[in-house]
């Protein structure tokens, strides 16, 4: 008769604690309490009759036995996740994570077209606010994602580049009013920021030779590009946005560029997925649909500055 195995939930708790090096972080990742993680680890230590961690206050160090167990469990849970992913593929649905502004300004119409043209294939979209785009395929319930990134992804990921990010300043025609616009006039205006760290304006200004970040440390702060663009469209100042995602407003005259310079950030929007999803029929069809329906640039193009 084979030896009884310890509880699966205890093994999962230990693997998370070993991976994070912290009971607190493990608890957060598994939606448990820190005391629950601690109890599960103690259950394993009683089962194996040896310590798995050396505890240095809040810091954890794996023992030799703990190190070997963590390595094997990581492989084992990866196999379990792959088996579950393969089973989910049979249902004909795909779970997609995407940033909220990209979803509103481009993705939703594309998914509507995808579902109309691919009967029986479903994409379940989760549109999520993210200050910096990310996905954790090990611990989040997604099969694929759309991310703004520099293209440096973890081992085991596949990626399809969709379109590059080009930042442009935008405001209403009334806000731009008459007269010549130059850098000093722009800096004297109300600048609208689409992230708390003001990174988009800082990057755009640096490419224009404005290296003092304090020159743009005024103006309202929003946490999404969508809100920043909407504020500019209501005449509250000059926002900074992705050229591809504001093309509609530029073409219909709702927004204009006071200075028509587009700055490349080096980032692009990518369609990414873990390699075990390579053969998912819905993923492959979605990838084709995304490539065939990329956002169009505005009719009047700015000067492009790498």
Walk me through the structure.
- The protein is an alpha/beta fold and 306 residues long.
- Among the domains are: 8-88, Winged helix-like DNA-binding domain superfamily/Winged helix DNA-binding domain (Arc Repressor Mutant, subunit A, Orthogonal Bundle); 166-266 and 300-305, Periplasmic binding protein-like II (D-Maltodextrin-Binding Protein, domain 2).
- The chain is 41% helix and 22% strand.
- It is built from 11 helices and 10 strands.
- The strands form 2 sheets. Strands 3, 4, 5, 6, 7, 8, 9 and 10 form an 8-stranded mixed beta sheet that branches. The protein has a two-stranded antiparallel ribbon with strand order 1-2.
- It is elongated, with a radius of gyration of 24 Å.
- The mean pLDDT is 90.
- One of its GO terms (molecular function) is DNA-binding transcription factor activity.
- Belongs to the LysR transcriptional regulatory family.
- Keywords: DNA-binding, Transcription, Transcription regulation.
Instruction: Return the CATH topology of the domain at 166-266 and 300-305.
Output: D-Maltodextrin-Binding Protein, domain 2
CA-CA gap between termini: 67 Å
CATH class of the domain at 166-266 and 300-305: Alpha Beta
> Nearest-angstrom radius of gyration?
24 Å
**CATH homolog superfamily of the domain at 166-266 and 300-305:** Periplasmic binding protein-like II
Work out the number of β strands: 10
Order of helices and strands: HHHEEHEHEEEHHEHHEHEHE
Q: Per CATH, which architecture of the domain at 166-266 and 300-305?
A: 3-Layer(aba) Sandwich
Biggest sheet descriptor: 8 strands, mixed
Helix content: 40-55%
Q: Helical element count?
A: 11
* Structural class by sheet pairing and helices: alpha/beta
Mean pLDDT value? 90
Low-confidence stretches: none
Q: What overall geometry do the principal axes of the alpha carbons give?
A: elongated
Estimate what percentage of residues fall within beta strands. 15-25%
GO molecular function: DNA-binding transcription factor activity; sequence-specific DNA binding
Domain HTH lysR-type: 6-63
InterPro entries: LysR-type_TF_proteobact-type (IPR058163), LysR_HTH_N (IPR000847), LysR_subst-bd (IPR005119), WH-like_DNA-bd_sf (IPR036388), WH_DNA-bd_sf (IPR036390)
Pfam families: HTH_1, LysR_substrate
